[in-house]
Specification:
With about 140 residues, this protein is an all-alpha fold. It contains 6 helices and no strands. About 20% of the residues are buried.
């Protein structure tokens, strides 16, 4: 009885990095195997990025006893956008292996940025950049108050 062909998501990490090149289906899906393997390696760091985004969103700025709803909504939107970007990149990387480094970028860049803005120097730089962005005019020129 022949066995059915298993999708990349059903295989072990070892099988993803070492596909059976004598199998035509495995040969034609080599990029998908590689993308899935790298996605599995980057995913734990993506989970850390989600946590750091939530922490950075809540810790930056002033404390308001009435609630943190706006900060929580911003954190949730950022996490959903990051997850969407990561899944889109995984899908694209299955077709084009050259996009695999971007899977790591979506996992590590938010982590590094979040950790940086939680430092005193990073928070000041972030607040300064945010103030400049808020004070720009419609044509991109600075608006004086």
């Amino acid at each position: 009885r022949p066995t059915r062909w298993r999708e990349p998501s059903e295989r072990t990490l070892y099988e993803l990095f070492n596909p059976d090149m004598s199998n035509r289906a495995d040969r034609s899906n080599a990029d998908a195997f590689l993308a899935e393997a790298h996605h599995r390696i980057a995913s734990p760091f993506l989970a850390l990025s989600f946590a750091v985004i939530a922490l950075a969103s809540l810790m930056l700025g002033s404390f308001n006893r009435r609630g943190q709803a706006r900060k929580i909504i911003i954190a949730a939107v950022l996490v959903v956008a990051l997850q969407t970007a990561n899944l889109a990149l995984l899908s694209a990387a299955k077709e084009h292996a050259a996009l695999i480094p971007l899977i790591y970028l979506t996992a590590f860049a938010p982590l590094a940025f979040g950790l940086f803005v939680m430092t005193e120097r990073g928070e000041q730089a972030f607040k300064s950049a945010l103030a400049k962005w808020r004070n720009r005019g419609d044509d991109g020129a600075q608006v004086t108050p």
